[in-house]
Amino acid sequence: MTLSNVRERWMAAAAILFACLAGAQVFAQQAIDLNNDGVNDTVRRELRLHQTDPVISRIVLVSGVDDTEFLSIATKTPNDMFGWYVSPIGDFDADGFEDLAVTAPASLIAEGLGPNDPGGPIPAWRGRVQLVSGESGAELMTIFNPEATANCIFGLGAAPIPDQNADGMPDLLVGGMRIVPAPTTANPNATTSEWKWWVMSVATGEPIRMGVGQVGSAGCE
Predict the structure, then answer these.
(1) What is the CA radius of gyration of the chain?
(2) Is 0.90 surpassed by the pTM of this model?
(3) What is the maximum span of the chain, computed from C-alpha positions, in angstroms?
(4) Which of 82, 171, 173, 210 is the residue whose CA sits 20 to 30 A from 162?
(5) What is the mean pLDDT of residues 83-96?
(6) What pLDDT, on a 0 to 100 scale, did the predictor assign at position 183?
(7) What is the rounded distance in angstroms from the CA atom of residue 171 to the CA atom of residue 174?
(8) Which residues have a Cβ under 8 Å from the Cβ of 36 and sit 6 or more positions away?
(9) Is the backbone of residue 9 left (phi > 0), alpha (psi -120 to 50) or beta?
(10) Are 164 and 153 in contact (CB under 8 A)?
């Protein structure tokens, strides 16, 4: 099998992974007033992922009064699954409106094959969480996976939590997945997965702590 074929199979398997997980619990089940009209609103996620075409995902804020769209927020990066998980984070920018944490777990980095491979580098999912204004859609902060390795998916979930590092600001709990080797006699290249989490500072975007299953567990290797 050529390196180009490896790249194609990797992308196909990755697309299936996100398609299977797309039914995860999301923001739409947390009703909250986003436009300050006294009525709870919802978020519609328009997730797009394609192996070859540069497709764009977005989220749309929908009025709870008349179901009209009052704000659309699109990603700037194709095929990143922006909007996979959306969580209210309070008034982050102090403008009087609820702001949002929006995850993009398929945000890519390139690793692995080097400049001479005709198929190009194998993309590795890194993932990010984008904090956006609920009033204008403006980007307030972007928090990237602090472990830029090919075996961690960052941003399968996100939720605000109380201040964890005594800086006076709430922090963000981010969920993800760690891919680990699980070789068998039949398939020495087999892998399996386990859940992983990060506590991230919303003041600096840096990790406070992380773990696999328990606080203090090892990070991605």
Answers:
(1) 18
(2) no
(3) 61
(4) 82
(5) 92
(6) 87
(7) 10
(8) 96, 97
(9) alpha
(10) no
What value does the mean pLDDT take over residues 185-211?
89
The residue type at 221: E
Find out whether 77 and 149 touch, Cβ atoms under 8 Å.
no
Cα–Cα distance measured from residue 183 to residue 203, given in angstroms and rounded to the nearest whole number:
41
CA of 175: how far to CAs of 87, 184, 198, in Å? Answer: 12, 28, 6
> Which strand (E) or helix (H) includes residue 14?
helix 3-21
Pairwise CA distance, residues 208 & 216, whole Å: 11
Cβ pair 86, 98 in contact under 8 A = no
How many angstroms separate the Cα of 133 from the Cα of each of 94, 103, 120, 126?
10, 14, 36, 23
Q: What is the pLDDT of residues 101-155, one digit of tens each?
A: 999 988 875 444 344 444 455 555 578 999 999 999 999 999 988 876 657 788 9
Q: Which residues of 141-169 are buried (b: 16+ CB within 10 A; e: fewer)?
A: bebbbbbebbbbbbbbbbebeeebeeeeb
Q: What's the burial of 189, exposed, middle or buried (CB within 10 Å: 0-12/13-18/19+)? A: exposed
What would the DSSP string read from start to end of 84-151?
SSEEEEE-TTSSSS-EEEEEETT-EEEESS-TT-TT-PEEEE--EEEEE-TTT--EEEEEE-SS--TT
Alpha-carbon span 23 to 138, nearest angstrom: 27
Contact 29, 40 (CB under 8 A): no
